[in-house]
UniProtKB/TrEMBL annotation:
Pathway: Carbohydrate degradation; pentose phosphate pathway; D-ribulose 5-phosphate from D-glucose 6-phosphate (oxidative stage): step 1/3. Residues 189-476 form the Glucose-6-phosphate dehydrogenase C-terminal domain. The active site is at H239 (proton acceptor). The keyword Oxidoreductase applies. GO terms for biological process: glucose metabolic process; pentose-phosphate shunt, oxidative branch. It is an enzyme of class 1 (oxidoreductase). It catalyses: D-glucose 6-phosphate + NADP(+) = 6-phospho-D-glucono-1,5-lactone + NADPH + H(+). Pfam families: G6PD_C, G6PD_N. This is Glucose-6-phosphate 1-dehydrogenase. Residues 6-186 form the Glucose-6-phosphate dehydrogenase NAD-binding domain. The lineage of its organism: Bacteria, Pseudomonadati, Planctomycetota, Planctomycetia, Pirellulales. The gene is zwf. It comes from Stieleria maiorica. Substrate binds at H177, K181, E215, D234, K329. It comes from the Bacteria.
Amino acid sequence: MAHTIVIFGASGDLTSRKLIPALYSLFKKNKLDDVVRIVGVSRSRFENQQFRDSLRESVAKFAGKLFDAQTWDEFSQHVYYQPGDIKDAEDFNALARFLDEIEQGEPSGRLYYLSTMPQLYEEAIRQLGAAGLADDTDGFRRVIIEKPFGTDLATARALNDSIHKVFREDQIYRIDHYLGKETVQNIFALRFANSIFEPIWNRNYVDHVQITVAEEVIIGRRAGYYDNAGILRDMFQNHILQLMMITAMEPPAKYDAALVRDEKVKVLHSVRKMTGADFASNTVRGQYEGYLKEEGVPAGSQTETYAALKLYCDNWRWKGVPFYLRSGKGMSCRTTQIVIQFRHVPHILFGQKTRSPVGNRLVVQIQPAEGIQLHFESKVPESEMKTRTSTLDFDFNQSSKGDMPDAYQRLLLDAVLGDASLFARSDEVELAWGIIDPILAAWRSPAAPELFQYTPGLWGPPEANEWMGNQHHREWFDVCPVLTHP
């Protein structure tokens, strides 16, 4: 079916940096229908050609070696612009007339992408409904909503309720770009397409799981957003819990959007609720030195820029296996990784000269050095029976010759095709907030655990290492990935 992609907030950074380059790349790869129209909507005043010209430079930059001037000229003829204010009902009526005009009365699916400020989501949805733009009689009508999806459980529920007044749940695509990454999707293949991993992917063989999302950068000029959000809202409620769900979920009966999301939701249902002393013993919070001097940060701010959590999934597969989740700004390096730490062998055969038992480790590097490493013990050459850790290393970029598609390519294509497997469902969002909200409340209470300071460029507060070592008798996998490709 022919389709039209309408991008609200088309003059913003996300459109020029991610969305249009992704759509251009899909077009170049012949993955979009022959009849596709892309309509940018924002308050700025552009003619169609002006809008196309404004996008050409950013597409050339972000599409990289995929950019081709002739292909761009062909693609740009599918790009249109319609000025509009989300708060103006007549602008939505004008948009409806414009879409009918360019679709020439032919049945066409429509995908609405809300690349706007989150405060405008509800109004945009309401206006789409009032203008009749959600009616799917003549083709699908779907809406993509960017994070943050609410700021707590109450606001998430309110947003869900308002959207459900206009769109059915099957029409709503809540996007998390982490799930579009090839390495995240490959976790499904790693677990469910290989007989060697799934039998040991459980409490009998796994000691614990670590999920780390570290960023080198500090907040810069984002204080207006960040000081009201903090690391839990910014990273844990969405990205990190999504990675945890995929790591911990049961295999669905088949790879189907509803069944995949059912299994993910079961993981959140199984997460043990923190109560009482848990908030002090199972969480660590930190703030990098110099945060209070950042432009726009209020004096004495207690907003965390680092957090570590210990969660349990109380179900048959994972009972008793801790999941350690952490994220921070101003860290040693930029990396997103999942570490499956297996139990060590019960007995060492080789005498006292052999070092203490070391468990095998499977490391999934999500970014930037996308790949999978298996750490195992091997003998040191020309020695007595001494062992060392060796690595089997799979590099996605080398295997794909460096042509790793951007996450938005996959997610936009899935939304057009109606595959919601990699998008969050309403109950999933609300359950995630149900895990994060009590921690936030505890951290804002008079009994909040101490906010530790840490020097930018390290792996967070030293107290987080002490918490992991002294209290939990484990250690963080503090290894920066090595990039082996240009």
